Structures are given as structure tokens and as C-alpha cells.
Amino acid sequence: MISAWLFHRMQRPVMVAIAVLVALAVLVPVLHLALPQSSALHVPTYIVALTGKYLTYALLALALDLVWGFCGILSLGHGAFFSLGGYAMGMYLMRQIGSRGVYGDPILPDFMVFLNYQELPWFWYGFNHFWLAAIMIVLVPGLLAFIFGWFAFRSRVTGVYLSIITQALTYALMLAFFRNNMGFGGNNGLTDFKEILGFDIQSDATRSALFAASALALAGGLLISSAIVGSKFGKVLVAVRDSESRVRFLGYRVEHVKLFVFVVSACMAGIAGALYVPQVGIINPGEFAPANSIEVVIWTAVGGRGTLVGPIIGALLVNGTKSYFTAALPDLWLFVLGGLFIFVTVFMPKGIVGTLSDMRGNWFARKTAGGGEPVPDKTIQPAAAE
Amino acid sequence: MNGSQHESLLYLDGVSVSFDGFKALNNLSLVMEPGEMRAIIGPNGAGKTTMMDVVTGKTRPDEGDIYFKGDIDLTSHDEASIAELGIGRKFQKPTVFENHTVRGNLELALAGGHGVFDTLFYRRNEADETRIGEIVETIRLGARENELAANLSHGQKQWLEIGMLLAQEPQLLLVDEPAAGMTDAETEETARLLKEIARTRSVMVVEHDMTFVRDLDVKVTVLHEGSVLAEGSLDHVSSDPRVVEVYLGR
Q1: A75, A68 in Cβ contact below 8 A?
Q2: Phi/psi of residue A231, nearest 5 degrees
Q3: Phi, psi values for residue B210, rounded to 5°
Q4: CA–centroid distance for A49 within its chain
Q5: In the structure, how many helices (H) and strands (E) does chain A have?
Q6: Cα gap B121→A252, rounded to integer Å
Q7: Main-chain dihedrals φ then ψ at residue A345, nearest 5 degrees
Q8: How do the domains of chain A map onto residue ranges?
Q9: Is A363 helix (H, G, I), strand (E, B) or coil?
Q10: Do residues B195 and B137 touch, judged by C-beta distance below 8 A?
Q11: Which of A339, A383, B9, B165 has the fewest CB atoms within 10 Å of its CB?
């Protein structure tokens, strides 16, 4: 039943992308662990860590695309959900340090000892259990999205106004998490992790496993997103994006439609954040910075919003370029990023994937122009920027 | 007055709406019987669109009562639940979902199952497909059913929207200027379509085009400055000197 729902009406590019991700999840760990370093096919550690991180970014971009590309909700605060998932994972990892911290306290993380905490704050209880952390990774971002969306969508806040309050949301969280007495490590955040599920977090095997988990999480996110978009609900989403009031007059509760997709997206972003943190080894309030959330919008726009594969390609491409530029020409990076965004907005409003599939559609149309039926453009066009 | 309220399909009594002091509707009272087709005419700013807005829940009236099917108080419902109750609305500008096909548009408009999980786990079924097929034939878009609505002509979009209203299976249809921007042939076709619809349900048409209203051949209500100026057959109202003065005379 469920598998039938997940797979029916899946588009070819999505199928290919899922197959590639699953293959990578197997192949990269094998090439990393089984081959000697001298081998030409050996994947070095830094590549595994770097690409694993990119995959979590790609999941975040996919989550944003679900609300922005398909439902027209331009969230400029998706970094908040990503960071909350990351903090939940970070709290678990902190509790795993145990007495190996600098101060050697078996219960309290180092920063709490340093800040003279006498006992563990109540919201840290249970985070030594992975299962609880795993629930919180999804629950906390989902709950925040639910409460935020409940009020915002019911009061019919849309367009630029909604974007501004999502931005304010992530900014407010950043300021809150910077405070030492919030109990989340203040501006230093959570770091110095040792173990995850009993495995050394620095070891090659753990890194490979985290990479595989990120690739599979992205494949799973893609599967769920494609099922949502391919269902009748997906049609309603696009209809809301294109003509919200018309959907209301057909008898749909637009606020429920938006709330559902917003919460699903936030949960996906939370999972992305949770996989990000053990791979980079730190989570701090800087992750809540508004600029981070805006960067996610750029990845999505570059790849092609309103396509499922686009944001993934965008995230990988932009971050790959970023890694190159910040190493080779660090002063130029922000100019390149800004220029890229302007270029894509002006010349490729549908992003890379949207433009490519348009070209393919035209090619088909020309090929069949000699009397055959014109091929309808199957791509879903992005709405005008709001 | 109460007797007619219970037998009526739509019952507006003393409805007033003002925007920043401007009275868009001023003590408007209007009754529609079940199965009736009614044309609403009036000069710009007479309150025609605002009246549709208050009936469909887009605007809340400042005062007055609006009842549907005798005793359903529409002022306490929002757009989505009014649509579910059986009131469909066609906008002045054709608003179809351009990124969906003709069939996709109709599928979205089908009555029932509008909840998040209903739509998420919706499976195509024989009954719905047949219904969509029937509507596609009625609105004469059979040849283009799998094309994106964006590729339709203006007139075809209007018909698609009327088809979407049919799919909603409303008891009352509010139609705002269906003939605007249409060629004569399209206008004629639209009048035919609306008359066909009116055989099974009530229709309220707002229109500027007098030949179109004459084609419809139904009872006419003239609005002026937010209230009813005259009511009756087109010949009757057009011979009313007040109507001639505010509207037809110009």
C-alpha cells in the first residue's frame, strides 16, 4: 500500500537521482575503506566528509523547494529548522562525551561546568538516549513549524511579509542561542564530540557511515517529496502557489495545505541538520544566521525551483564552487555567489534543471513538428517571484 | 419576510458593507428562489462584485443577514466552507490553474475530498474520470483535455472555469461577467452553456453586456450605489425612468 503510494507516478529524473544516491551510499564507503590510499580510485577522507556535508545541504534545499517551488511559500528561515535538528543531535553527542571532557564531569558537558551549572537543565534530560534525540530531531523543528505556520497561514500572511517574518524567526533564535544562560553553550555552541552510537566520530568507518546515511536520507526525502508532489495534494500545492484565492473558492482549506507542507519540510530540514552536525563536528548559533537561510534560497534557485532534482544539483554545485573559491580565491567568493544569483535570476529563471528540460521539450517539439502531436511541456513552471 | 426566507435559496436582508467610509453595499436585500437564474446589472461601482464577495465569504458584511437554503447563516462561514456548502463562483478574470492540464483543473474542482489527507492518498477512480469526461464534453474542450490550461484561448479558459464550477456540483453559481472580452460567437456559446447549467441549478450572472443579458432572457436585478434599484424582466427594468437615468441612459 505505502510503497504503491510512494512510487506511483514518479518522474524519471527522480528515479535516476534516487538510484544514483543509493549507489553512492554503497560505493563511496567501499572505495574509501576497502581500497588502499595508493589506489587511484581511493576516496580520501576529506572528500567523504565534504560531500557528506553537501548531501545534507542538498536535503535542506529540497525541503525548501517543497514549500517554495511547489507551494510558493518563500521561507527565508529554513536554516532555523536545520539548526534545531542540528542542536538536538549536538545535545546527544555532548552527552556521549561523558567524563572524557576537559573537566571530566560524568554528567555535565564542559560548558556547563565552566558556567557553574550545578545540575543538568531539564531539557537536557534523556538526550543521552539516541532514540529520544532522534525523535526530537524531527519533533522540535516540526512543532516550531506547526506553531509558526498555524498563526501565519491562518492570518493569511503571504508573500514578502511571510518571508520577512521567517527571517525574523531565525534571527530571534540566533540571538536566543547566543545567550549563555539558554543552556545550549552560548556562542561556542556544542562541539568536541567523541562518539556517536558508541563509534569514534573521527574514524573512517564512522565518516563513511555518516556519508551513507546522508545519501540515503536525501534519497528518502526525494522519495517522499516526489510522492507528495505526484499526488492530488501536489496539484493542490501548485494551485495554491499560482492562485491561492481560487483554491479557497473550490472548497480547499489553503491554511491546512500550507501548514502540512511547511511542517513536512521543516522535519526534513531538521534531519538534514542532524546529519550535518556529526560530519562537521560543531553546531553553534551562527547556523541560525539569516544569511545562511538566504544561501539555501540561492542553491534552490540556481538548480531550479519547482523541480525536485534541481535544488539538489544547485546545492551540490554552489557548495562545490564555494569550496573551490574559498580555498583558491577567498576574497572573490561572495562576488561570485552574488553574480551567480543575478545571472540565474535574469537569464535562467527556471534554474539549471528547468532550463534544460525546456530545451529538451523544444527539441522534441521540433522533432515532431512534421505532423505529430505537439509534446506538452511537462515541467511545472515556477511562479513569478514574490 | 420570514416565510420567503425559508423557501429561498439565497436570502440577503439589509446587507451593508463599507470600505473606508465608502458604502459599497447599502441596505441591500435580494431573494433568489431555488432553480432560478438571475442577471444582475448595474453601472461600475454599483456593488455587484462586493455582493458576490459577501455571499462567498471573501468579505464580511458590516450588518445584515445572508442565508443559504433558508437557514444556513453564511456570515459565519469562510470561503472554503461556503464552497463546500454548494456555492460556486466564477471570477471576472478567468482564473484557471495554468500549470495544470484541462483535466487536472477539473480534477481539483471535483466536489468532496478536499482535506489534506484525502488529497494526499487520492487514487483516480472510474466515477471521477467519467464525470470529468462528461464535463470536458459539455464545455467542448475534448480535443484539448490533456493540454496545459495556459495554452487555452481566453474564451476556452472561461469555459474551463465554468466546467470547474460544474465539477464542484454547486447548488448556486455566481458568475461574474462571463462574456467579457469574448468574440460574438464565444458569447453566444457561453449563454448556451449557462442556460444548460441553469436547468439543474440556480445561477446568478453579473454582466455588462446587454445583448448577452437579453440572450439569457431571465429576471433582472438592477443595482445602484449598493442597493436594488429595480427588479423584473429586462424590458420592465429598461423602461423604468430611474434605471434609464443611472445606467442605460448614459
Answers
A1: yes
A2: -85, 175
A3: -70, -35
A4: 17
A5: 15, 4
A6: 15
A7: -65, -40
A8: 2-367
A9: helix
A10: no
A11: A339
Q: What is the distance in angstroms between the Cα of B118 and the nearest Cα belonging to chain A?
A: 8
Minimal-distance CA residue of chain A relative to B81: A251
pLDDT band at B3, cuts 50/70/90? low
Can you give the pLDDT at residue A370? 46
This model of the complex carries an ipTM of: 0.87
Q: Which of B195, B232, B230 is nearest to B212 (CA)?
A: B195
Does A378 have pLDDT greater than 80? no
pLDDT, one tens digit per residue, over A344-375 is: 889 998 999 988 888 887 776 666 554 444 44
Which of B97, B158, B166, B172 is the best substitution to test chain A (most A C-beta atoms within 10 A)? B97
Neighbours of A177 (CB within 10 A): 23
CA A81 to chain centre: 9
Task: Give the number of other Cβ atoms within 10 Å of residue B39's Cβ.
Answer: 23
Q: What is the pLDDT of residue B1?
A: 46
- Sort strands A282-283 and A190-191 into parallel, antiparallel or unpaired: antiparallel
Cβ B116–A232 below 8 Å, yes or no? no
Say what the pLDDT of residue B132 is.
94
How many residues can be counted in chain A? 386
- Residue bearing cell 463599507: B18
pLDDT at residue B227 tops 70 = yes
CA of residue B129 relative to chain centroid, distance: 25
In the numeric block, which cell numbers belong to residue B162?
Answer: 465554468
Measured CA to CA, the distance from residue B155 to residue A189 in angstroms comes to 61
Partner residue opposite A251 with nearest CB, options B98, B120, B168: B168
Average pLDDT over residues B49-66: 92
First-last CA distance in chain A: 38
Q: Hey, are the CB atoms on B56 and A249 less than 8 Å from each other?
A: yes
Contact residues, chain A to chain B, C-beta under 8 Å: 5, 228, 231-233, 235-236, 238-239, 242-243, 245-254, 256-257, 260, 376-377, 380-381
Helix (H) / strand (E) element for B174: namely strand B172-176
Beginning with the edge strand found earlier in the chain, give each strand of the sheet holding B22-32 in spatial order: B22-32, B10-19, B63-68, B72-73
- How far apart, in whole angstroms, are the C-alpha atoms of residue A314 and residue A303? 4
Judge contact between A376 and B148, C-beta under 8 A: yes
Note the pLDDT of residue A368. 58
SS3 A124: helix
Vertex A320 angle, CA A316 and A322, to 5°? 120
Question: pLDDT > 70: what percent of chain A?
Answer: 94
- R_g over Cα of chain B: 18
Cβ-based contacts of B108 with chain A (< 8 Å): 232, 235-236, 239, 247, 250
- For B61, counting Cβ atoms within 10 Å of its Cβ (0-12 exposed, 13-18 middle, 19+ buried), the class is buried
Q: Within chain B, where are the H helices?
A: 2-7, 48-56, 79-85, 102-109, 116-120, 126-138, 154-168, 184-198, 210-216, 234-238, 241-243
N-to-C CA span, chain B:
35
Q: What is the pTM of this model?
A: 0.90
